Amino acid sequence: MACKRGALIVLEGVDKAGKTTQCQKLVQALRRKGHPAEMMRFPDRTTTIGKMISAYLENQSELSGQTVHLLFSANRWELVPLIKKKLEQGTTLVVDRYAFSGVAFTSAKPGFSLHWCKQPDVGLPKPDLVLFLQLSPAEAALRGHFGMERYEKSSFQCAVQQQFKHLMEDETVNWKVIDASMNVEDVHKDITEHSLNAINIAQNLPLGEL
Ligand code: DGP
After folding, report:
1. Taking phi first (over 0 means left), then psi (-120 to 50 degrees means alpha), and beta for anything else, what does residue 41 get?
2. Distance 152 CA to ligand 1 centre (A)
3. pTM to 2 decimals?
4. Which of 92, 113, 145, 175 is packed most tightly, with the most Cβ within 10 A?
């Protein structure tokens, strides 16, 4: 019998919501329970496109909003063959940000419609589960100062949060909102429960497309 496919699980949220910590803990928990799992993150700054994105985020280069939006999307597309291969091999992928960050961050800039922002990611593998780590911008600010990167300003993060709210109205995506103000272990417990459920369901379903 062919091996069952892995699930594509995405963690989203504004900066400082705890996505990276929770991705790492989830991968470890899934492995302990016998599910092959690996972490990925977007942007993947190791590729040629990723290096261009990284320079932009670090304010070392200037690019138009349209250009950088397409680069972020291209960075996801260049990893699609690997994503599909891993899932087919039965590995569950836990992904730190995906197309939803792409749309939320660009559409938070003046002059960018949600419709325009969504187009480059149409056709990407559709996540089986999107966990949205909900944390108010005020609580995020209490977790320490933002760094020096381009988007790390409270006012911009508020606008991003607002765009995520619009995206969560899309019922064709399996969103689960997680209260990221809880302690790390309680957040982890919620996330693990939803993920195990998604892995079971995904086994019997074909991978969808955004
Ligand atoms: P991170 O490496 O997760 O800290 O992400 C870097 C920054 O880039 C963060 O402020 C969120 C933003 N970002 C992530 N993905 C995208 C995207 O696809 N498009 C845009 N415009 N920004 C993104």
Report:
1. beta
2. 10
3. 0.97
4. 92
CA dist., res. 196 & res. 34, Å (int): 11
Predicted confidence at residue 137, as pLDDT, reads 79
CA of 135 to the centre of ligand 1 (A): 17
Domain 8-206 has CATH 3.40.50.300: yes
CA dist 162 and 180 (Å) reads 17
Is the CB of 106 inside a 6 Å radius of any atom of ligand 1?
yes
Cβ of residue 97 lying under 6 Å from some atom of ligand 1: yes
Q: Name the stretches of the chain with pLDDT < 50.
A: 1
Residue 182 · residue 21 · CB < 8 Å: no
| 64 three-class SS | coil
Domain ranges of the chain: 8-206
pLDDT of residue 2: 67
In contact, 36 and 173? CB cutoff 8 Å:
no
ipTM: 0.96
Secondary-structure breakdown of the chain: helix, strand, coil percentages, each rounded to the nearest 5:
50, 15, 40
Q: What is the pLDDT of residues 51-64, one digit of tens each?
A: 999 999 999 999 99
Under DSSP, the state recorded for 121 is G
